[in-house]
Amino acid sequence: MTQKHTIRSALALIFFAAAMPVALGLTPWPRENIVDIEDGKSAPFVGDWSMELAGRPTTTYATCDLPVRIQAPDDTHIFYVGPKDPEPEAATELVARDGRTHWRPIAGGPQYFAVWVGPDRFHLYEADVEDEADWGEPYAFTRCD
User: Fold this and answer.
1) Judging by beta carbons within 10 Å of its beta carbon (0-12, 13-18, 19+), is residue 100 exposed, middle or buried?
2) Mind listing the pLDDT tens digit for each residue in 63-92?
3) Least C-beta-crowded within 10 Å: which of 11, 40, 100, 140?
4) Which ranges of 1-145 would DSSP assign to H, the alpha helix?
């Protein structure tokens, strides 16, 4: 290897090492809860929530003026009521698995899993693509006051 190639290789390695934290910083979303929330239980989810798709650009689906409402008929099921829905359609079973709460709609449909990123904020990801989840674009729920 010539001295010119050695210098280029060294510069490429330095550039790669310097760029790695920036690249990792583009996906700051955790893969496990970072707050102490008991997985598989409905109580933490109960309440009114704003909701957005936290991507580029961010898309807002619900605000605190017109929130998503989550109700609990028992300890392991929730009713999700969209911002314009008069009432829920069917219950969703909550299952604790792998340090997360999985949402399994009883009537069928897409399954999701929640990752708590704060005591009043969680991110929801599609379970069908869990191994390939786009950690930078979750549905982000923030509790309303």
Assistant:
1) buried
2) 999 999 999 999 999 999 999 999 988 899
3) 11
4) 3-25
CA distance 115 to 127: 12
Q: How far is CA 103 from CA 59, 62, 80, in A?
A: 22, 19, 11
Q: N- to C-terminal Cα distance for the chain?
A: 64
CB of 71 within 8 A of CB of 81?
yes
pTM passes above 0.70:
yes
Between CA 33 and CA 58 the distance in angstroms is: 22
Are 51 and 140 contacting, i.e. CB atoms less than 8 angstroms apart? yes
Name residues whose C-beta falls within 8 Å of residue 135's C-beta, 6 or more positions apart in sequence: 27, 29, 31, 125
User: CA 28 to CA 7: how far, in whole Å?
Assistant: 33
Count of other CB atoms within 10 angstroms of residue 32: 10
Q: What is the three-class DSSP state of 136?
A: coil
CB atoms within 10 A of CB 141: 25
Distance in angstroms (rounded) separating the CA atoms of residues 120 and 131: 26
